[in-house]
Design brief:
It is a single chain. By secondary structure, this protein is an alpha/beta fold. It contains eleven helices and six strands. Helix content is 55%, strand content 13%. Helix 2 crosses helix 3 and helix 8 packs across helix 11. It is globular, with a radius of gyration of 18 Å. The N and C termini lie far apart (58 Å).
């Protein structure tokens, strides 16, 4: 019988954190940790052997760090998603990770369920960032007023969907949006899917960039 779980390789120089994260991820049932490494050299050695779907690596990790590991992984033509998991919320670190080819930037104070959700979305091809980093990524990606056809697509959104789009632009997680609007988490997820479909977008990050650009365009 095939194992449909997402195969993850964890890379972190702190053994206790690495083992604790592996246990938390596997408790949720959707993820299987197929390898753990404490540095970049060990991680590269496991890459072919473990055949992960996703690599999750720390940022500040001796001797070279997560960005150097990411570049080495890409140099080997491994094209799966690499997610940075770190304590750093600095915009410069986020920019460096994205320029090096990371598909996600997560923070170590995130809820385990949110990390699992981010891993699942990364496997589907989305760019994923910690909710508190969304606006910083928007600042990096924002490039002027939106095309007219994109702005016109806003007319397809309901009042509730526009409200949720504004919250996405603020970097709120689905759980935080649910609390703010006093609706269920599943209802927010459904609204987000509808927003992405109507705006022809593929990720929450794109939706946040779109929302900020649209507001900028309206002010000009």
């Amino acid at each position: 019988m095939n194992d449909a779980r997402i195969r993850v390789l964890l890379v972190d120089d702190h053994t206790l954190f690495r083992k604790g994260l592996a246990e938390l991820l596997e408790q949720r049932g959707e993820i299987r940790v197929v390898g753990m490494a404490g540095n970049g050299d060990a991680a590269l050695g496991l890459l072919a052997e473990a055949s992960p779907d996703v690599v999750i690596t720390d940022l500040n990790m001796p001797p070279q760090g997560g960005i150097a590991l990411l570049r080495r992984i890409r140099a080997q033509n491994w094209r799966g998603p690499v997610l940075i998991l770190t304590v750093s919320d600095a915009e410069d670190d986020l920019a460096s990770a994205m320029r090096a080819g990371a598909q996600g930037y997560l923070l170590k104070d995130m809820e385990p369920d949110d990390v699992v959700d981010a891993v699942q979305r990364a496997v589907r091809g989305e760019t994923v960032v910690a909710p508190t980093m969304t606006m910083k990524l928007v600042n990096l990606l924002q490039g002027g007023a939106p095309p007219a056809e994109k702005a016109d697509a806003l007319k397809q959104l309901t009042a509730r969907e526009r409200e949720i789009l504004d919250y996405l632009a603020q970097g709120l997680s689905n759980k935080a949006i649910a609390r703010a609007l006093d609706i269920s988490h599943d209802t927010v997820k459904l609204h987000v899917r509808h927003i992405l479909s109507k705006l022809n977008l593929t990720s929450r990050v794109e939706a946040a960039v779109f929302a900020v650009e649209h507001k900028s365009g309206k002010r000009e």
